[in-house]
Amino acid sequence: MRRLFKKALPTLVIVIVFMAAGIYFFIRGGAHDGTAIKASAVKGDLTVIVDAGHGGADGGAVSLSGVKESAVNIDIATRLDLILGFFGTHVEMTRTSENLEYSEKSDTIRQKKAEDQSRRLKQINSAQNAVLISIHQNIYPSSGPFGAQVLYAPTNGSKEFGAAMQQLLIDALNPKNKRTADEAPDNILLMNHITCPALLIECGFLSNPEEEKLLMTDTYRTKIAAVIAAGYLANRENLVDINSGGTNEGKDSILLY
């Protein structure tokens, strides 16, 4: 019986999250201040850092219809923040809008990206018991590739978390997706300069016409956020005892994300 329950848990969590998401967004529809329910951090509890990739001077990839990746990322990240908040999860966002402030010394786009990445790293590494979930979109020269993919950090617990999240994304979003969770390459700064469990989730391909069309809809973005929230909630207990914090400054990373 216990084995059957464990096998059914991810599906049950998805159903619960979908119901909660529907109720929450219905209630939120009556509010006009744009605020979300925020849970206070409790000593020993996890802090989920939701990172909306790119933003500000860095728009990321551009979809077939001309929408910037950064705008899609912040929309899904905000939905994820709201859903996790509904479940009492303490969430911190690395950015809450498309506009980012930079110091006067940052003139070029590269300098602004470097400054922003340093700011995000500082926030992540200063959070106690952190778990990082970074939201991105994929792109490819041809229109064929599709499907969400998880990249996991080379940190304790990330591989297992990533594999579970990848399977959940396949089951809930696209059973034809044959992609597997892979370790993030060395040139992704955020994933290689932290020690907390961390996932970078490529939610879909902006270069695939069918998937790009889905990613432009509120319904699909909410579904992605709900599945990611379910993946975290289903694996939360496995993440609780993992130590986090610190940096790994020995690697020469390139600012690709």
From TrEMBL:
Gene3D superfamilies on file: Zn-dependent exopeptidases (3.40.630.40)
Q: Which UniProt keywords apply?
A: Hydrolase, Membrane, Transmembrane, Transmembrane helix
The entry lists its GO molecular-function terms as: N-acetylmuramoyl-L-alanine amidase activity
**Residue ranges of domain MurNAc-LAA in the record:** 121-233
Q: Which GO terms describe its biological process?
A: peptidoglycan catabolic process
Coiled-coil stretches: none
Q: Name one GO cellular component term.
A: outer membrane-bounded periplasmic space
Cross-referenced InterPro entries, in alphabetical order? MurNAc-LAA_cat, N-acetylmuramoyl_amidase_3
Task: Kindly list the residue ranges recorded as spanning the membrane.
Answer: 9-27
SMART domains in UniProt: Ami_3 (SM00646)
- Name under which the protein is recorded: N-acetylmuramoyl-L-alanine amidase
